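#struct-help
A.M.: can someone run this one for me? Single chain, 172 residues.
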Amino acid sequence: MTPHPRLDAAWFAEHAPNFSPDENWGDLSRLSPFVPITLQRIRQFYNAPIKVLDGCTPRPERPNSQHPLGLAVDFCPHIKPAGLTADEMQQRHLREWLRLFQICQSIWLSGFGVYPLGSHGYGYFHLDLRGDGAPARWTAYRNDCGELEYTSGIDDLAVQLSVINVARGLKA
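D.P.: on it. Structure tokens below:
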């Protein structure tokens, strides 16, 4: 197996210029360079900042996770709250999340997970570069008890219901 190149500031400047090694990539020595390169491609279509939430980190509770292998990243739109109320911030995040969702749906990703309402109150995405040849798609949403449930595939209905629930919470 060929070792990964050193993912330092010079590498990011050349291959993923909208990102830096200081973001939440986790263990850069194990992170596949194709993860930031793929996220850079998404960023070019999105044409707005993207926040890296989690990269190459241990996941003992999820033995099949691609994160510890350096093949996955969680991300979301990066919204700067300057001058926005909490409701305005959430509404803007929701709009940008939906726009980013449409872009990700149009790009081939071997692993793509959709989390319409993450634990921090905002939606996020998971991409991974699993090498088994079979693309994996899933949607995670919160049930009535607030627990995460997963559907196989990108469940547009679950996404829409989660978005509606967020919108209802904004109006309450």
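A.M.: thanks! The chain has a mean pLDDT of 82.
D.P.: also worth noting: Strands lie at 50-54, 72-77, 111-115, 124-128, 136-142, 148-152.
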